[in-house]
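User: Thanks for the earlier help. One more: Glycine N-acyltransferase-like protein. Can you show the sequence and predicted structure together?

Assistant: Of course, both are below.
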Amino acid sequence: MAFQVPKSSFESFLSQLNVVPELITIYNTVKQFVTGKIDECGLELFGYPHEEPVLWAVLKKPKYSMLVLVLLQTLIQLVRNVLLMQAVLCQDQVLKLGVEAIFNFIKGDLRGMDKVLLVAGDKILENVNIKMKKFATHPLMTDNNPCCLFYMDENQSDRLLKEELVAPEGFSFVDLDPKRDAEIVSNAVQENVDQTKERLRKMPSVGVRCKESGQIVAFELCSGIGLITHHFTFPEFRRQGLGRLVELRLCQKVIQKLGIVPVKQVSRKSPEVINMSKRSLFWTVYKEADGSDRLGYYRIYNISRSIDSLKSILRPLLWSKRRGYKMLSLFTRTFPDNAYQKLVLSQKSLTKEYTYNLFALKSNFISICSLPRNTM
Protein backbone atom coordinates (compact mmCIF):
# COMPACT_ATOMS: atom_id res chain seq x y z
CA MET A 1 0.00 0.00 0.00
CA ALA A 2 1.21 3.51 -0.81
CA PHE A 3 1.20 6.36 1.68
CA GLN A 4 1.38 10.13 1.69
CA VAL A 5 3.90 11.85 3.95
CA PRO A 6 2.49 14.81 5.93
CA LYS A 7 4.43 18.02 5.29
CA SER A 8 5.19 18.23 8.99
CA SER A 9 7.10 14.94 8.67
CA PHE A 10 9.16 15.77 5.58
CA GLU A 11 12.32 16.47 7.56
CA SER A 12 12.17 13.14 9.39
CA PHE A 13 12.21 11.32 6.02
CA LEU A 14 15.30 13.07 4.64
CA SER A 15 17.74 10.44 5.89
CA GLN A 16 15.64 7.72 4.24
CA LEU A 17 15.60 9.64 0.96
CA ASN A 18 19.33 10.38 0.92
CA VAL A 19 20.25 7.61 -1.54
CA VAL A 20 22.68 8.71 -4.27
CA PRO A 21 22.07 8.54 -7.16
CA GLU A 22 18.84 6.50 -7.06
CA LEU A 23 16.74 9.08 -5.14
CA ILE A 24 18.91 12.13 -5.70
CA THR A 25 16.23 14.32 -7.32
CA ILE A 26 13.55 13.40 -4.79
CA TYR A 27 15.93 14.09 -1.89
CA ASN A 28 17.09 17.45 -3.25
CA THR A 29 13.50 18.54 -3.83
CA VAL A 30 12.26 17.64 -0.36
CA LYS A 31 15.33 19.13 1.33
CA GLN A 32 14.89 22.48 -0.40
CA PHE A 33 11.25 22.50 0.67
CA VAL A 34 12.18 21.70 4.28
CA THR A 35 14.82 24.44 4.40
CA GLY A 36 12.41 27.02 2.98
CA LYS A 37 14.19 27.48 -0.34
CA ILE A 38 11.06 26.43 -2.22
CA ASP A 39 7.91 28.46 -1.77
CA GLU A 40 7.11 28.83 -5.46
CA CYS A 41 5.02 25.65 -5.40
CA GLY A 42 3.04 23.26 -3.28
CA LEU A 43 4.73 19.92 -2.64
CA GLU A 44 3.33 16.47 -1.89
CA LEU A 45 5.41 13.37 -1.11
CA PHE A 46 4.33 9.75 -1.62
CA GLY A 47 6.01 6.40 -1.00
CA TYR A 48 5.46 2.69 -1.73
CA PRO A 49 5.15 0.33 0.07
CA HIS A 50 4.43 1.61 3.55
CA GLU A 51 7.01 -0.70 5.10
CA GLU A 52 10.49 -0.12 3.67
CA PRO A 53 9.41 2.03 0.68
CA VAL A 54 11.37 1.65 -2.55
CA LEU A 55 9.37 3.90 -4.91
CA TRP A 56 8.93 7.61 -4.19
CA ALA A 57 7.02 10.38 -5.93
CA VAL A 58 6.89 14.15 -5.53
CA LEU A 59 4.02 16.17 -6.99
CA LYS A 60 4.81 19.86 -7.49
CA LYS A 61 1.94 22.29 -7.97
CA PRO A 62 3.25 25.64 -9.22
CA LYS A 63 2.49 28.90 -7.51
CA TYR A 64 3.46 30.87 -10.60
CA SER A 65 2.27 30.56 -14.17
CA MET A 66 3.57 31.94 -17.45
CA LEU A 67 1.58 34.88 -18.80
CA VAL A 68 2.08 35.42 -22.51
CA LEU A 69 1.23 38.89 -23.83
CA VAL A 70 -0.49 38.65 -27.18
CA LEU A 71 -1.14 41.59 -29.52
CA LEU A 72 -0.36 43.96 -26.65
CA GLN A 73 -3.71 43.36 -25.00
CA THR A 74 -4.49 39.74 -24.15
CA LEU A 75 -2.82 37.37 -21.70
CA ILE A 76 -2.80 33.59 -21.83
CA GLN A 77 -1.97 31.73 -18.63
CA LEU A 78 0.29 28.67 -18.88
CA VAL A 79 0.72 26.40 -15.85
CA ARG A 80 2.93 23.33 -15.58
CA ASN A 81 2.65 20.76 -12.81
CA VAL A 82 5.56 18.40 -12.19
CA LEU A 83 5.55 14.75 -11.11
CA LEU A 84 8.95 13.33 -10.09
CA MET A 85 9.32 9.58 -9.54
CA GLN A 86 12.42 7.60 -8.51
CA ALA A 87 13.03 4.13 -7.09
CA VAL A 88 15.83 2.36 -5.24
CA LEU A 89 14.79 -0.91 -6.90
CA CYS A 90 13.75 -1.36 -10.52
CA GLN A 91 12.03 -4.74 -10.33
CA ASP A 92 9.19 -4.80 -12.85
CA GLN A 93 6.50 -6.13 -10.53
CA VAL A 94 7.42 -3.73 -7.72
CA LEU A 95 7.29 -0.73 -10.05
CA LYS A 96 3.98 -1.86 -11.54
CA LEU A 97 2.32 -2.21 -8.13
CA GLY A 98 3.98 0.95 -6.82
CA VAL A 99 2.88 3.18 -9.69
CA GLU A 100 -0.64 1.76 -9.42
CA ALA A 101 -0.78 2.49 -5.69
CA ILE A 102 0.66 6.02 -5.93
CA PHE A 103 -1.65 6.94 -8.80
CA ASN A 104 -4.61 6.00 -6.62
CA PHE A 105 -3.52 8.88 -4.37
CA ILE A 106 -2.88 11.48 -7.04
CA LYS A 107 -5.43 10.68 -9.76
CA GLY A 108 -7.83 13.32 -8.46
CA ASP A 109 -5.12 15.98 -8.67
CA LEU A 110 -4.02 14.89 -12.14
CA ARG A 111 -7.53 15.06 -13.56
CA GLY A 112 -7.70 18.72 -12.55
CA MET A 113 -4.44 19.65 -14.30
CA ASP A 114 -4.19 20.87 -17.90
CA LYS A 115 -0.54 19.88 -18.19
CA VAL A 116 1.71 17.46 -16.31
CA LEU A 117 5.48 17.20 -16.70
CA LEU A 118 6.66 13.74 -15.70
CA VAL A 119 10.33 13.25 -14.80
CA ALA A 120 11.25 9.59 -14.36
CA GLY A 121 13.39 6.72 -15.60
CA ASP A 122 12.28 4.63 -18.54
CA LYS A 123 11.10 1.63 -16.49
CA ILE A 124 8.92 3.78 -14.22
CA LEU A 125 7.70 5.64 -17.26
CA GLU A 126 6.40 2.48 -18.93
CA ASN A 127 4.05 1.90 -16.01
CA VAL A 128 3.04 5.55 -15.75
CA ASN A 129 2.17 5.61 -19.43
CA ILE A 130 -0.19 2.68 -18.95
CA LYS A 131 -1.98 4.56 -16.16
CA MET A 132 -2.21 7.79 -18.16
CA LYS A 133 -3.77 5.92 -21.08
CA LYS A 134 -6.35 4.39 -18.74
CA PHE A 135 -7.20 7.82 -17.34
CA ALA A 136 -7.69 9.16 -20.89
CA THR A 137 -7.61 12.69 -19.46
CA HIS A 138 -4.24 13.69 -20.95
CA PRO A 139 -4.07 11.95 -24.35
CA LEU A 140 -1.59 14.39 -25.89
CA MET A 141 2.11 13.72 -25.34
CA THR A 142 3.64 17.02 -26.47
CA ASP A 143 7.20 16.50 -25.31
CA ASN A 144 9.25 13.37 -24.70
CA ASN A 145 12.84 14.37 -24.07
CA PRO A 146 15.30 11.58 -23.13
CA CYS A 147 18.06 12.67 -20.77
CA CYS A 148 21.20 11.51 -19.02
CA LEU A 149 21.52 12.34 -15.33
CA PHE A 150 24.90 13.62 -14.14
CA TYR A 151 25.88 14.13 -10.51
CA MET A 152 29.01 14.75 -8.44
CA ASP A 153 30.16 12.06 -6.05
CA GLU A 154 31.84 12.95 -2.76
CA ASN A 155 35.37 12.95 -4.17
CA GLN A 156 34.35 15.11 -7.13
CA SER A 157 32.59 17.58 -4.83
CA ASP A 158 35.67 17.84 -2.60
CA ARG A 159 37.91 18.33 -5.62
CA LEU A 160 35.66 21.07 -6.98
CA LEU A 161 35.60 22.99 -3.70
CA LYS A 162 39.40 23.14 -3.81
CA GLU A 163 39.37 24.43 -7.39
CA GLU A 164 40.05 28.15 -7.84
CA LEU A 165 37.87 29.31 -10.69
CA VAL A 166 38.96 32.55 -12.35
CA ALA A 167 37.03 34.43 -15.02
CA PRO A 168 38.97 35.22 -18.23
CA GLU A 169 40.54 38.63 -18.67
CA GLY A 170 37.90 41.25 -19.38
CA PHE A 171 35.18 39.34 -17.52
CA SER A 172 34.12 38.90 -13.91
CA PHE A 173 31.85 36.60 -11.92
CA VAL A 174 28.75 38.19 -10.39
CA ASP A 175 25.70 37.01 -8.48
CA LEU A 176 22.54 37.54 -10.48
CA ASP A 177 20.38 40.25 -8.95
CA PRO A 178 16.58 39.77 -8.86
CA LYS A 179 15.84 43.42 -9.63
CA ARG A 180 18.54 43.98 -12.21
CA ASP A 181 18.74 40.64 -14.00
CA ALA A 182 15.39 38.86 -13.63
CA GLU A 183 13.91 40.17 -16.86
CA ILE A 184 16.82 39.22 -19.10
CA VAL A 185 17.01 35.78 -17.47
CA SER A 186 13.28 35.09 -17.70
CA ASN A 187 13.25 36.10 -21.37
CA ALA A 188 16.16 33.80 -22.15
CA VAL A 189 14.79 30.75 -20.30
CA GLN A 190 11.08 31.46 -21.03
CA GLU A 191 10.00 31.53 -17.42
CA ASN A 192 7.63 33.66 -15.37
CA VAL A 193 9.55 36.77 -14.27
CA ASP A 194 8.19 36.62 -10.71
CA GLN A 195 9.28 33.01 -10.44
CA THR A 196 12.72 33.98 -11.74
CA LYS A 197 12.99 36.71 -9.12
CA GLU A 198 12.01 34.21 -6.43
CA ARG A 199 14.68 31.77 -7.55
CA LEU A 200 17.35 34.44 -7.79
CA ARG A 201 16.53 35.53 -4.24
CA LYS A 202 16.63 32.05 -2.74
CA MET A 203 18.75 29.88 -5.01
CA PRO A 204 22.42 30.19 -6.02
CA SER A 205 23.14 31.76 -9.39
CA VAL A 206 26.19 32.86 -11.34
CA GLY A 207 26.63 35.45 -14.05
CA VAL A 208 29.59 36.56 -16.12
CA ARG A 209 29.81 40.29 -16.72
CA CYS A 210 31.76 41.88 -19.56
CA LYS A 211 33.83 44.65 -17.96
CA GLU A 212 33.86 46.73 -21.12
CA SER A 213 30.09 46.85 -21.66
CA GLY A 214 28.92 46.09 -18.13
CA GLN A 215 26.45 43.56 -19.55
CA ILE A 216 25.76 40.02 -18.39
CA VAL A 217 27.02 37.78 -21.22
CA ALA A 218 26.57 34.33 -19.65
CA PHE A 219 24.65 32.95 -16.70
CA GLU A 220 23.34 29.84 -15.03
CA LEU A 221 20.91 29.35 -12.17
CA CYS A 222 19.19 26.60 -10.28
CA SER A 223 15.71 25.25 -10.75
CA GLY A 224 13.32 25.48 -7.82
CA ILE A 225 14.70 22.20 -6.46
CA GLY A 226 18.38 23.05 -6.83
CA LEU A 227 18.92 21.30 -10.18
CA ILE A 228 21.69 22.85 -12.30
CA THR A 229 19.74 24.28 -15.19
CA HIS A 230 18.98 27.32 -17.33
CA HIS A 231 22.46 27.82 -18.72
CA PHE A 232 22.76 30.56 -21.33
CA THR A 233 25.65 32.28 -23.09
CA PHE A 234 24.99 35.00 -25.65
CA PRO A 235 26.09 33.81 -29.11
CA GLU A 236 28.90 36.31 -29.61
CA PHE A 237 30.57 35.16 -26.36
CA ARG A 238 30.39 31.41 -26.92
CA ARG A 239 33.39 29.08 -27.37
CA GLN A 240 35.44 31.05 -24.84
CA GLY A 241 35.08 28.62 -21.94
CA LEU A 242 32.53 30.78 -20.11
CA GLY A 243 29.89 28.03 -20.02
CA ARG A 244 32.12 25.54 -18.22
CA LEU A 245 33.28 28.15 -15.69
CA VAL A 246 29.73 29.30 -14.94
CA GLU A 247 28.56 25.72 -14.42
CA LEU A 248 31.39 24.77 -12.07
CA ARG A 249 31.11 28.01 -10.09
CA LEU A 250 27.39 27.38 -9.64
CA CYS A 251 28.09 23.82 -8.49
CA GLN A 252 30.45 25.17 -5.83
CA LYS A 253 27.62 27.37 -4.56
CA VAL A 254 25.12 24.49 -4.60
CA ILE A 255 27.42 22.44 -2.38
CA GLN A 256 28.22 25.32 -0.03
CA LYS A 257 24.84 27.06 0.22
CA LEU A 258 22.29 24.30 -0.38
CA GLY A 259 24.22 21.37 1.08
CA ILE A 260 23.17 19.00 -1.69
CA VAL A 261 24.86 17.02 -4.44
CA PRO A 262 25.05 18.98 -7.73
CA VAL A 263 22.80 17.37 -10.35
CA LYS A 264 22.06 18.17 -13.97
CA GLN A 265 19.94 16.49 -16.63
CA VAL A 266 21.39 16.64 -20.15
CA SER A 267 19.16 16.00 -23.16
CA ARG A 268 20.12 13.17 -25.50
CA LYS A 269 19.60 15.77 -28.21
CA SER A 270 22.88 17.37 -27.03
CA PRO A 271 25.45 14.60 -27.55
CA GLU A 272 28.35 17.07 -27.46
CA VAL A 273 27.37 18.23 -23.97
CA ILE A 274 26.94 14.62 -22.82
CA ASN A 275 30.37 13.62 -24.11
CA MET A 276 31.99 16.71 -22.63
CA SER A 277 30.38 16.00 -19.25
CA LYS A 278 31.58 12.39 -19.37
CA ARG A 279 35.14 13.58 -20.00
CA SER A 280 34.98 16.02 -17.09
CA LEU A 281 36.75 15.21 -13.83
CA PHE A 282 33.78 16.63 -11.94
CA TRP A 283 30.78 14.71 -13.28
CA THR A 284 29.55 11.11 -12.98
CA VAL A 285 26.81 9.77 -15.25
CA TYR A 286 24.08 7.64 -13.65
CA LYS A 287 24.45 4.12 -15.05
CA GLU A 288 22.48 0.89 -15.13
CA ALA A 289 23.87 -2.28 -13.56
CA ASP A 290 25.13 -3.39 -16.99
CA GLY A 291 27.17 -0.19 -17.38
CA SER A 292 24.88 1.57 -19.86
CA ASP A 293 23.63 5.08 -19.21
CA ARG A 294 20.42 5.23 -17.18
CA LEU A 295 17.76 6.66 -19.47
CA GLY A 296 15.44 9.25 -17.97
CA TYR A 297 12.71 11.30 -19.59
CA TYR A 298 11.05 14.68 -19.39
CA ARG A 299 7.60 13.84 -20.73
CA ILE A 300 4.68 16.26 -20.92
CA TYR A 301 1.06 15.09 -20.97
CA ASN A 302 -1.65 17.54 -22.03
CA ILE A 303 -5.42 17.45 -21.92
CA SER A 304 -7.34 17.25 -25.19
CA ARG A 305 -8.34 20.53 -26.83
CA SER A 306 -10.80 20.66 -29.70
CA ILE A 307 -10.48 23.05 -32.62
CA ASP A 308 -13.62 24.86 -31.45
CA SER A 309 -12.19 25.52 -28.00
CA LEU A 310 -8.97 26.75 -29.60
CA LYS A 311 -10.95 29.17 -31.74
CA SER A 312 -12.71 30.59 -28.71
CA ILE A 313 -9.35 31.26 -27.07
CA LEU A 314 -7.43 32.57 -30.06
CA ARG A 315 -10.06 34.36 -32.18
CA PRO A 316 -9.82 37.66 -30.25
CA LEU A 317 -6.03 37.43 -30.35
CA LEU A 318 -5.86 37.36 -34.13
CA TRP A 319 -7.84 40.53 -34.78
CA SER A 320 -5.86 43.64 -35.54
CA LYS A 321 -6.91 46.98 -37.02
CA ARG A 322 -3.36 48.17 -37.67
CA ARG A 323 -1.48 47.42 -40.86
CA GLY A 324 1.91 45.75 -40.66
CA TYR A 325 3.25 42.85 -38.65
CA LYS A 326 1.90 41.57 -35.38
CA MET A 327 3.48 38.65 -33.58
CA LEU A 328 1.65 36.07 -31.51
CA SER A 329 3.75 33.59 -29.55
CA LEU A 330 2.28 30.57 -27.83
CA PHE A 331 4.07 27.57 -26.39
CA THR A 332 3.59 24.59 -28.65
CA ARG A 333 3.25 22.31 -25.67
CA THR A 334 -0.15 23.75 -24.85
CA PHE A 335 -1.92 22.36 -27.89
CA PRO A 336 -1.15 19.85 -30.68
CA ASP A 337 0.64 21.25 -33.72
CA ASN A 338 -1.97 20.03 -36.22
CA ALA A 339 -4.68 21.87 -34.29
CA TYR A 340 -2.73 25.10 -34.76
CA GLN A 341 -2.45 24.54 -38.48
CA LYS A 342 -6.17 23.85 -38.91
CA LEU A 343 -7.03 26.83 -36.76
CA VAL A 344 -4.81 29.25 -38.65
CA LEU A 345 -6.25 28.19 -41.99
CA SER A 346 -9.80 28.59 -40.72
CA GLN A 347 -9.11 32.11 -39.49
CA LYS A 348 -8.60 33.41 -43.02
CA SER A 349 -12.31 34.07 -43.47
CA LEU A 350 -12.63 36.21 -40.35
CA THR A 351 -11.47 39.49 -41.86
CA LYS A 352 -11.13 41.09 -45.25
CA GLU A 353 -8.10 43.11 -44.26
CA TYR A 354 -5.82 40.41 -42.89
CA THR A 355 -5.02 36.77 -43.41
CA TYR A 356 -3.08 34.67 -40.94
CA ASN A 357 -0.19 32.47 -41.77
CA LEU A 358 1.65 29.95 -39.63
CA PHE A 359 5.20 30.90 -40.53
CA ALA A 360 7.56 29.66 -37.86
CA LEU A 361 7.68 26.60 -35.66
CA LYS A 362 10.53 26.64 -33.15
CA SER A 363 11.47 24.26 -30.38
CA ASN A 364 9.81 26.19 -27.58
CA PHE A 365 7.08 28.27 -29.15
CA ILE A 366 4.94 28.70 -32.18
CA SER A 367 4.59 32.08 -33.88
CA ILE A 368 1.62 33.30 -35.86
CA CYS A 369 1.97 36.47 -37.88
CA SER A 370 -0.83 38.59 -39.33
CA LEU A 371 0.00 40.04 -42.74
CA PRO A 372 -1.83 42.43 -45.06
CA ARG A 373 -3.59 40.32 -47.69
CA ASN A 374 -1.61 41.80 -50.60
CA THR A 375 1.68 40.50 -49.18
CA MET A 376 0.59 36.85 -49.18
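User: Great, one quick takeaway?

Assistant: The domain at 154-260 is CATH 3.40.630.30 (Aminopeptidase).
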